[in-house]
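Researcher: Good morning. I'm working through a list of sequences from a screen, and I'd like to move beyond sequence-only analysis. For each chain I'm collecting a predicted structure so we can compare shapes side by side. This is the next one on the list. No need for commentary yet; just the structure.
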Amino acid sequence: MPHADNSLAVFRLGRQPFAATWAAMEAYTNARGEHGADQLWLLEHDPVFTLGQAGKPEHVLAAGAIPVVRTNRGGQVTYHGPGQLVAYPLIDLRRRKLGVREFVERIEQGLIDTLAAWDIPAARRAGAPGVYVHGAKIGALGLRVRHGCSFHGLALNVALDLEPFGRINPCGFEGLRVTSVLDCGGPGSLETVGSVLVGKLASQLGLAPVAVSGLPAGLAPIPTPAADVA
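Model: Good morning. Structure tokens for this chain:
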């Protein structure tokens, strides 16, 4: 059994607005200190397009009624919405002796291992962080590291309406195809996929997941249909 210092506090947050979640991640990262617990937040967002810190607005082709938010994460533009599993690993990389590149690779491998549970052949793509199935993007990454601690994270398309991806150049790539776990023959339940993802990410990071009830500071419970809860 891993030492208590290797614990990963796992919060299942249901559906949350992006702005409030981002603010809560910032607050935790700024205040956590050297002994702050490593955490993993699982949730889904209300519909939103997010631009990375260096994201080019021209990659948003036709946002329509979906809000566009510029963030301080890496990467270009992506879409979040109901039916997409978002995971935010708030990890002290210095404590885990992880460089940023290795951290990204371990997250990607956690996604690949998760999809392999349903025989979905995901792979990396050179020069384009994330994971792909037969050339179509299924999982996106966008991270920020401050004082050696990570926030923001990854988004895995589980069972969502993919139409909004047609309104952007996903991750800055014109015409990039996207797909979902459900479309690849896997389950459409965020709870099912999330449970596997927690185990695979924790394994990649050498951590022991511990479910935590309640919500992190700054977030409030939002009623969500059971089928939509991450």
